[in-house]
Structures are given as C-alpha cells and as structure tokens.
Amino acid sequence: MFFTYFGQYLLLLKSVFRRPEKWRIYWKEIIHEMNEIGVGSLGLIAIISTFVGAVMTMQIAFQLVSDLIPNSVIGQINRDSSILELSPTITALVLAGKVGSSISSQIGSMRVTEQIDALEIMGINAPGYLILPKILAGITMIPVLVIISIFLALTGGLVGGALSGAVTPADYISGITDGFIGYTVAVALVKAFVFGFVITSVSAFKGFYVRGGALEVGQASTRGVVISCIAILVMDYIVTALML
Amino acid sequence: MIEVQNIHKSFGDNHVLRGIDAKFEAGKISLIIGGSGSGKSTLLKCMVGLHSPEQGKVLYQDQDFTRMNFEDRIPIRKEIGMLFQNSALFDSMTVEQNIIFSLEMFTDMSRAEKIERANFCLERVNLAGRNKLYPAELSGGMKKRVGIARAISMSPKYLFVDEPNSGLDPETAILIDELIAELTEEYQCTTVVVTHDMNSVMGIGDYILFLYKGQKWWEGSNKEIAHSDVEELNNFVFASPFMKVAKERF
C-alpha cells in the first residue's frame, strides 16, 4: 500500500515538473502563492516563535541553576536550540497545519467540482499549473519564515529572560554571540527547504487524488496534515544525521 | 468527426462499457442517452481523455487519441470545448478570467483582443456586461452559459456537453439547448451531449445513441425514436404516462 501511494506521488511529481505552458502565467501564480504562504503565515509564526523563545529561556534558566555555569550559557543553548531545531521544526509543523490543509482542501475542492478535469481538457498540465507554484513558493518562503522565526525566538528569549529575571540582557546577548557557528544556520535553511517541499507536495498530492465530495475533501486535508507532520519529523532526523 | 471503436472500460469488477462503436459527425448534435449507470458519462470521459479505455479507440479525424501521450494530445485538446454538469468554472476567477484563461495559456493575443473575445463570447450567451462577477454570484443557468462561453472561447471543433439541463427550469433548459444548436451550426463543430432530458432528445438530437447496461442498444435520429419498437428505449424515453400518450398519438 505504501509503495503504491509513494509511486503515485513520484508520478505526480514528474507531471508537476513538466515544462510549463507559459511561464508568465505560472510566475503570477508563484507570486500569489508566495504571498499566501509567506505573508499569510507571518503573524502566526511571529507569535509562536516569540513565545517559544521566551519560554525556552526561562526553562533553560530553571534547569541550569548552578554557580559553576555562567548565565550566558542560557543564551547559547537557546540560540543553538532555536536555530537547529525549534524554529525550523515548529515553523514547519505549524505550517503543515495552516498551509498544508489549505492546499489539500483547495486542490481537493477543485477535483470534486471537476475544475481539474476542465484544466486537463483544455490541454493544460493540471499538476504543473496547480502544484508547481505552491512547491516553489513553499521552498522559498518557508526558509524566509524560519529565518524570521529564529530572529524572533532569540528576541523573545531576551525579553522573556529580562522580564522574568532569569538572565540579564547583557549575559543573554553575550551568550547568543559567543561561539556562534554560521553552519548551524545553513543546517536550518536546508531543513526549511526540505520541509517546504514536503508540506506543499504531500498536501497537494492528497488533494489532487481525492474522490467523492465535501466529506472526502475534509478527510484528505486531515490526512495530508498528518502525513506531512510525520514526514517532517522523519526528514528532520535524516537531515540532522547527514549534516551534523 | 469523432469515431469510437469497440470501447471497453471497467472500474474494478464493474464492466461499465462493453464494446461501444459510434460515429459523431461534424455540424450535427449527437446525444448519448441512457439510464443511470448505463455508461454515458464514462463514454464521454473516455472520448475526452479523462478516462483511458482498456480496449478500443477514440479517433479524432482518424487520429487515434487513446494512444497519444500528453504532449501529442495538446493540439486536439485546444480544439475541444466542454461544458460540465456543474459548469466547473474556476471559482477563484471572474467570469472574464474564466473565459480568457485558455487564450492566455495558448495564444499570443493582446490583452485588448482577449477582452474583446470574452465580450463576444458573453454576448453570444446573453451575458454581456457580467465580466467582473465571480461564479458564486451567478445562478445555475448563468453558470451554464458562462461554461458555454468558456467552451467556445477557442472556437472549438469539438464541443462536449455533460448534462446541460440538469438543475435548470424547463424554460432555461430549452434556451441552453437552442444555444448549443446555434453554436453547433455556427462553428460547424462535432457536438456530443450526454443528457437525460427528453426535450433535448426530441428537440436537438440529430443523432441519438442509446446505451443500456454498457452496450449500444439503439441509434438513430429524433424522428426515428418516436417510431422505435425497442422496448428498453421506449421504457426510457417514454417513461411517464404523459409521454406514453404522446407516443401513441405521434
């Protein structure tokens, strides 16, 4: 069963990456999707990242109560956790719910109302026209969102630490700047790129092959989110194992 | 002209089409009729390439459409216009955007030319000035007419229509039938209509193909159907007491 679906997924991807009929039309769609995925998710990602950063700082401070450990370590741990794991993974999991369900239900609704059939009869490569702009928008905007998330998580940590008295701003800033390794950001961006591809392609796949009516569209959307979340965690492990 | 030869199509154990042969001629309206589950829509979908038959051929001007790959089908698909049962308008686009979508994808027409073509198509279906409305703002009959306007935007050689009158009041249904007849005459296209509507059968059916249990059971014109002695056909076409009386007086 798994291999049947995986084969179907690969065949769909092959159709998605067929040469577009007219790049100008696709470009308009790509810009539209970048706005939907990027700008449309910015507020949610900003709120989540800021609070996760603040809470992380307080919890690290709680666990590291020792005179032998300098307070700047709190900033260091928060920085590395946010860059390597929390910002990419939490952003991706949140977007799997928000963006992924939207993609599945949008494409699924088009399938059950025969809009995809209409595209195919016109001679338009429906997978390419509907899915390629979403994938390209996902792999460009999710890394941008992850960078913003990292910045806000670190800022949230600064504010949370200062407000709670867990760490002074000076110690925290010293912690996040000392021993910074730029490669960790590269790892985060690779993860974001992979997660962007997974979220958009898996959700689109579930929507594209839906059969039935409104109920099945909802079920496909839920399955798309669940499979995307599992795939994100598996890919997170694989990328981490390969790059660190 | 479109010809289907020995079309077989199954879904699992359900053998829906069992060797259909038919010819659909240019400039004429061909109707595919039959009860629910008889295979009408499946045959139509095999003809336009939405389903792949297990056996048999669909020939467009003697070109075997069933054996073509995606790229080879594109020139024929550009000549196809189709009206779906639920209109299948792109709901994120306005009426005008729906109509010019194919033109944007496949032609190098200027913006002004495309708008002019959209206005022409809308006038043709008596919806002039409705360019900026979204499908959600249209009635069922208006959606059908926009679907027809979209189908004729590329001046089709082949026009496929799936249940054009479903969900419409009798008066609007007749208007849609008349529009299909006018467009067939105007574009001299090969028009294939799947319908349940007996007004359509008697009114516009130049050629009628009656399917029964996935097989071609009867074929002929709307003039011949009234005098047919095929029991299954009569039970289908003249099902109501009123129609039975009408047949006897015919």
From TrEMBL, chain A:
TM spans (from-to): 42-62, 135-160, 180-205, 225-243
Molecular function per GO: phospholipid transporter activity
GO cellular component terms, A-Z: ATP-binding cassette (ABC) transporter complex
Keywords assigned by UniProt, alphabetized: Membrane, Transmembrane, Transmembrane helix
InterPro entries reported for this sequence: Permease_MalE (IPR030802)
Protein name, per record: Phospholipid/cholesterol/gamma-HCH transport system permease protein
Organism encoding this protein: Parapedobacter luteus
UniProtKB/TrEMBL annotation, chain B:
SMART domains in UniProt: AAA
Positions of the ABC transporter domain: 2-238
Alphabetized UniProt keyword annotations: ATP-binding, Nucleotide-binding, Transport
InterPro entries according to UniProt: AAA+_ATPase, ABC_transporter-like_ATP-bd, ABC_transporter-like_CS, P-loop_NTPase
GO terms of molecular function: ATP binding; ATP hydrolysis activity
One Pfam family cited in the UniProt record for this chain: ABC_tran
Name this protein carries in UniProt: Phospholipid/cholesterol/gamma-HCH transport system ATP-binding protein
Protein source organism: Parapedobacter luteus
